[in-house]
TrEMBL record, chains A, B:
<dbReference type="InterPro" id="IPR002933">
    <property type="entry name" value="Peptidase_M20"/>
</dbReference>
<dbReference type="Pfam" id="PF01546">
    <property type="entry name" value="Peptidase_M20"/>
</dbReference>
<keyword id="KW-0378">Hydrolase</keyword>
<dbReference type="InterPro" id="IPR036264">
    <property type="entry name" value="Bact_exopeptidase_dim_dom"/>
</dbReference>
<protein>
    <submittedName>
        <fullName>Beta-alanine synthase</fullName>
    </submittedName>
</protein>
<comment type="similarity">
    <text>Belongs to the peptidase M20A family.</text>
</comment>
<dbReference type="InterPro" id="IPR010158">
    <property type="entry name" value="Amidase_Cbmase"/>
</dbReference>
<dbReference type="GO" id="GO:0016813">
    <property type="term" value="F:hydrolase activity, acting on carbon-nitrogen (but not peptide) bonds, in linear amidines"/>
</dbReference>
Length: 467, 467
């Protein structure tokens, strides 16, 4: 039974105000509008058009015949990213927003509210950059849905109490410039501006964040900080990127917080010698050691019920089949809901690495750096309540789940400086960071409608708050 | 006690004709010449000058202050390789050689012998190409020592019975065009010419062996085959590239044959998904599987007393720290003195790989190709005897060892078509395919003198042979 069919049945059961009939059609010849929170309804078709319109910039990795059946490669501060940015700026201005750009290229589009009490805006933020082999929803859904909410407010002449706006955060993926959630991290005061500016393109060391911001025209003059541009709240709609909602048959995840994670880079140093003439006993084989380390770190991960993954391994370009490599570099990504478990896993992994390094031949040396350390985050009760209210109305009491985010998001940094939460929608097979990443048009629309109603609910709530 | 000191002591013990005093000085103000086989003595200083002169073309990877303290990166058919080739051609012509180039760029420099019976030349062959992080001796010593032998014959007006010459074989390393001993393989009829011509530069697929031969002017018109250019014998002086001679305190290895080896490329296919949100149970992680495969293949190698090594591992350039890789490719190099053991190791390794592929999450797929299959080689008794005689005279009955080559060499293919053997000299720490690869001037000279005397001994022997 489809979700929409289930929703229809639920509506017939008519269990009071808490659950309303709600449906999105996939054609412009939509059925008559149905009752929705605050009398507003996002346009599901327009949202789809926006998503796929922006994907013309960076479309890659075709996997099917349909024009939308490609993945994305829109690296942060690339020419394609710049095109998507200009589109975002134009479209938000059309619906009455002022747009400001800070020194990290973060884009803040703000639609003024009614209140003379000019408190910081209630923001809907996400990112337009993608993984090199990414999909069409990670980040993109959040930004396009935020625009769809602003368009809906604009079309209906809806006046919020306080400013409401959309944010495009720079280099969330950390794929081109190797630090994820980079610019929200600077905004939150967690990453120094100079460090961020000096980060280099992993494939072209001549390009830095600063030089690329300048090149594409998005090096703003406004300081990048929560003092210079404070936020009243931060809501982010995002695909779950995991299988929990789909396998539980739920449509909305109300995100309570994010798990902690650390990224390490491990460098193993050996000696390049001939494979045919060098006995095992006299070798220093860093690739053998790295292979054992990767396997061991996975075993440690299982024993702590933590996720430990190696996504990248590199050897010098001078390596060859009949030469023991001189050195090997690989990454570790360690995740768990609790900070102290991440720390314990790291310690256990490094202890195992020390033993492995001495195991074969004449041994290898290794060193490591901690590249990212993202503490577990707890999101704001008021924001969570606003999303729960909206979810309960839209998909019923059984249609949503409280969840913890497995991935890092700009919302994690935002939550350090303002009330924050996230809204998850299911994605096919829980697949993300993959060209075939997919969220159905219905699920995108439900997510955007929850975003709209959560933001408006929070806008009401703020009347009774001081911030 | 140094080798020269030991040699001096041995000479004082005067144990008859078999052992003669023999020393090389490291300066031009050499002591008076000592008695040497056939009354000829190679010039140790000139040999050193030639080695390091040629290393101006491709010097790389400096590791010390001395001008000679660099490694080499002289890839086959590069501009630097072309410069070294022109030097080889000029220098061999100066000592009375005619030089022919075949369709694979192999260079045959031939100094005519006395006999009207124009049998094929007794050749001294090796290669001038290097690994991308190679040293100054692998291949280079063999070619420069061959030239030094020819110069010594020329300077002394020594008339051999049969033609004697030097060969520079193309792309021995297989580092740029991924098939080792490529052009000696074509000459021996083991590799089809068209296949060899079409091999592509591993980093620049637009460059093929044929296009690069043409570009640098070494696409000869003579067919590349042992019919078009037969050889009477093939001797090759080479550094051992392993630790056996050094640790045994021996100066010469008389090579009885070469171990068998196979090169495989293994491709493991998984699915790229987010590291933070994808539980272990739903992953298809090819890098984890590859890590386990590499560790397992090493364990299989130990159990068969065979050498199994992974020198290269590659992931797509789109990989990132927080994404499970989509696929991984790695190489396997399997070596043992016996062909059947290499086959058994391959079977055992692939069986283990099959089990590992199913072990984690939803499993991975893998495929493999056999890129090289070099059977064990047995060298020629007559050539071996000629080298043994020379070694016994020069370094005494305890100064040499019969050894098996761990590495592949052009001599392995040559041995399929003509009487062949090799002469090994020690290299520091057994290290090769490394910028710091080193063979002392004394050891180079002893090797070149053994080469000279073995070739002249074999030249005498041929009077009683039909070939």
């Amino acid at each position: 039974m489809s979700f929409l069919a289930r929703l229809a049945i639920r509506s017939h059961r008519a269990i009071g105000r808490q659950t309303r009939r709600y449906s999105f059609t996939s054609s412009r010849n939509a059925a008559a509008p149905v009752d929705a929170g605050f009398g507003l309804r996002i346009n599901a078709d327009r949202l789809q058009e926006s998503i796929h319109h922006t994907c013309q910039w960076g479309a890659a990795h075709r996997y099917g015949e349909d024009p939308t059946q490609t993945g994305m490669c829109r690296l942060a501060l690339s020419d394609d990213d710049a095109r998507a940015r200009r589109w975002f700026e134009e479209e938000t201005r059309k619906v009455g927003c002022g747009v400001k750009v800070d020194q990290m290229g973060n884009m803040f589009a703000c639609r003024p509210g009614a209140s003379v009490d000019r408190r910081p805006m209630t923001a809907m933020g996400s990112h337009l950059d993608t993984q090199p082999r990414g999909g069409r929803y990670d980040g993109i859904l959040g930004v396009t849905a935020a625009l769809e909410v602003l368009r809906t407010l604009h079309d209906n002449g809806y006046q919020t109490n306080f400013d409401v706006g959309a944010i495009n955060w720079t280099n969330e993926e950390g794929a081109r410039f190797p630090k994820s959630m980079l610019a929200s991290g600077v905004w939150a005061g967690a990453i120094p501006l100079e460090d961020a500016w000096q980060l280099r393109d992993i494939f072209n060391p001549e390009a830095t964040v600063r030089s690329e911001l300048e090149r594409i025209g998005y090096l703003g003059s406004m300081p990048c900080s929560s003092q210079a541009y404070p936020l009243g709240a931060h809501f982010e709609l995002h695909i779950e990127q995991g299988p929990i909602l789909e396998s539980a048959g739920k449509k909305i995840g109300v995100v309570q917080g994010a798990q902690a994670y650390r990224w390490l880079t491990v460098n193993v140093q050996g000696r390049d010698t001939h494979t045919g003439t060098t006995p095992y006993a006299t070798r220093k084989d860093p690739l053998l050691a790295a292979a054992k380390m990767i396997a061991a770190s996975n075993a440690v991960g299982h024993s702590f019920e933590a996720l430990v993954t190696t996504g990248v391994i590199k050897i010098p370009p001078t390596s060859s089949t009949n030469t023991v490599a001189a050195e090997v570099t690989f990454t570790l990504d360690i995740r768990h809901a609790r900070d102290h478990v991440v720390e314990e896993v790291q310690a256990a992994v490094l202890e195992r690495f020390g033993r492995i390094a001495a195991e074969d031949g004449r041994g290898v040396a290794f060193s490591w750096t901690l590249d990212s350390d993202s503490r577990a985050a707890s999101f704001d009760a008021g924001c969570i309540a606003a999303v729960e209210d909206a979810a309960r109305r839209l998909v019923g009491p059984d249609g949503w789940l409280p969840v913890t985010s497995g991935a890092g998001h700009d919302s994690v940094y935002a939550s350090k400086q303002c009330p924050t939460t996230m809204i998850f929608v299911p994605c096919k097979d829980g697949m993300s960071h993959n060209p075939e990443e997919y969220c159905s048009p219905e699920d995108c629309a439900i997510g955007a409608q929850v975003l709209l109603e959560a933001v408006l609910g929070y806008d009401q709530l703020r009347l009774g708050l001081r911030r």
